[in-house]
Amino acid sequence: MGPKRELKFALESFWDGKSSAEDLEKVAADLRASIWKQMSGAGIKYIPSNTFSYYDQMLDTTAMLGAVPPRYNWTGGEIGFSTYFSMARGNASVPAMEMTKWFDTNYHFIVPELGPDVNFSYASHKAVNEYNEAKSLGVDTVPVLIGPVTYLLLSKPAKGVEKTFPLLSLLDKILPIYKEVIAELKAAGASWIQFDEPTLVLDLESHQLEAFTKAYAELESSLSGLNVLIETYFADVPAAAFKTLTSLSGVSGFGFDLVRGGQTLDLIKGGFPSGKYLFAGVVDGRNIWANDLEASLTILQSLEGIVGKDKLVVSTSCSLLHTAVDLINEPKLDQEIKSWLAFAAQKVVEVNALAKALAGEKDEAFFSANAAAQASRKSSPRVTNEAVQKAAAALKGSDHRRATNVSARLDAQQKKLNLPILPTTTIGSFPQTIELRRVRREYKAKKISEEEYIKAIKEEINKVVKLQEELDIDVLVHGEPERNDMVEYFGEQLSGFAFTANGWVQSYGSRCVKPPIIYGDVSRPKPMTVFWSTAAQSMTKRPMKGMLTGPVTILNWSFVRNDQPRFETCYQIALAIKDEVEDLEKAGITVIQIDEAALREGLPLRKAEHAFYLDWAVHSFRITNVGVEDTTQIHTHMCYSNFNDIIHSIINMDADVITIENSRSDEKLLSVFREGVKYGAGIGPGVYDIHSPRIPSTEEIADRINKMLAVLETNILWVNPDCGLKTRKYTEVKPALENMVSAAKLLRTQLASAK
């Protein structure tokens, strides 16, 4: 099953009250011990600790600093599970904190809420406890902390605090806590400590860079006697940031992502501080392809001449959190494809093999096998499909925009759909019950027949349809009972994809995903959703959405081939989805949702690269639906990112309706419309947070809708949750949706009487 899934089930059992805090802690301790021992056994010298999290590492840092928002009624002392998980998930009386994406990954973090009145205190000793835990097992580790400047730069002003409040002004208040942690780690016997400062890869202003200099100068005396590593990842470090970083006081070494940061290599070659360690991230921590060992060794040898043999450390490009755990858990994976891959356990072996080769102990057999796998992948006929490449090449020269403008299309669609003002809908999925999962599992294991499986899924769809009709929702969904995961489901039906049995990756908390592997050219052999969508539409007279995942999201939520540009792969996926859209339309589906939940997530970290990415990403979406009739309504959905900076690209997608996360981020999205951006298509900013078990009242939802009506036209506003409902229970979903529909009806009545 793998450690990520074990943690998932332990968390869910604890949240459901089926197990105790002690049970959860034991599972976590066993998992940590297994990982530390595995890394130690593989010969890794610098083994990290404090990288294990019950939810995410930013929330762990918030707990460490005692930065708990007042609404959680924390009264001090060591922060326990009740307060910790209330911040992450909310509780019956108060909502959760905002959740957003960790840089350009599918990992999420809970955004700290800070202001001048926060009373910081050392409230979680997790870093020290886990160091001692590893030490008791005979493993000396490098404790890892989110650096103080990155923590503040990724925070936001708390509710009621001016949006212009300078978060970096809190540096003097949090550094004393860091000093306490450092003192305890030193006393416990730590010889190294790692600060993750990945914000150094962003476009920072001079005062932000100065904050790094100030922070580490202030910590210098506390860090005396320790080796200190500052780690960056996910992109190139800009020249100004590189200069700031390599000039920091009291720092022993610097870590760089040399997979996504090739230009950083030039900076290192141009001048690296004498006597400092270089942690060279040459093994990709974010993808699953086997490292080209000979190419990496060549890079390392060139660096060795710059920093010295004793100061060069072979490393992964980032934490292995973002990749699958171990290929040993994949006995059914195609052997040829398997030979091209390296999961976390294999990447650890690659790091050690490269380190040994640098030390003159090269394992020739291991390197030869790696070279053979690299050659096999390049020459395999299953990677290339000439027809697909020709079709993708033919896309050049057109922007693939629907011929009629969105205003005229919405008029044509309204005549056909006859929807009320403030139409209600949901995003797609409904709760994935234990029984439903059992049916899918048994069908996959061939324990039930296809006929039995279809019957069971149709019964589930019918239940979801009837519930939505009872709730009086206007545009329905079929609930996606046939899908375990939105990307995996489509990937399984597209050529060029491979799948794992246990390649789980944590997204946040107990939410794990199993990204498909795109190894070759992509095409759609046959229709993927038409059968289920038409079956669902036959059960109701109300419009039934056809539910698809968009090409950019499939790309960003997969392990993508690294032998061609990402945009080329995305265009291939777009053509496959286009075929599906047109087949759904032919089958009588008049509302089709093409989710692009991950479009913002893939935005490059550097502003200079934004325009190119947004151009091909938005173009890919338009390709999918360029051929449909004006009366076919195209929806899309986005969630859990900051969308304000790409609002014009969202408009440029030319969807008829967009549903978008809004409630958990304190309605941040609405500010862009207050600032004058005009949006003419249909839009449904989420009215409640589905990642929390909390059930919002009718009045609360009505208040949110009123805030939306203050900046959006009545005739374009939709009412919907933030996201899909698969992670929730029916006991939460039914009353929440009932309140949502009641709120929409209340507002309709008020609007009608105001005329």
Automatic annotation (TrEMBL):
Cofactor (UniProt): Zn(2+)
Domain Cobalamin-independent methionine synthase MetE C-terminal/archaeal: 422-745
Membrane spanning stretches: none
Protein origin, superkingdom: Eukaryota
Pfam name, any one: Meth_synt_2
Coiled coil start-end: none
InterPro entries referenced in this protein's UniProt entry, alphabetically: Cbl-indep_Met_Synth_N, Cobalamin-indep_Met_synthase, Met_Synth_C/arc, UROD/MetE-like_sf
Cobalamin-independent methionine synthase MetE N-terminal domain boundaries: 1-305
Known catalytic reactions: 5-methyltetrahydropteroyltri-L-glutamate + L-homocysteine = tetrahydropteroyltri-L-glutamate + L-methionine
Family under the similarity heading: Belongs to the vitamin-B12 independent methionine synthase family.
UniProt-recorded name of the protein: 5-methyltetrahydropteroyltriglutamate--homocysteine S-methyltransferase
Organism for this UniProt entry: Rehmannia glutinosa
Biological classification of the source: Eukaryota, Viridiplantae, Streptophyta, Embryophyta, Tracheophyta
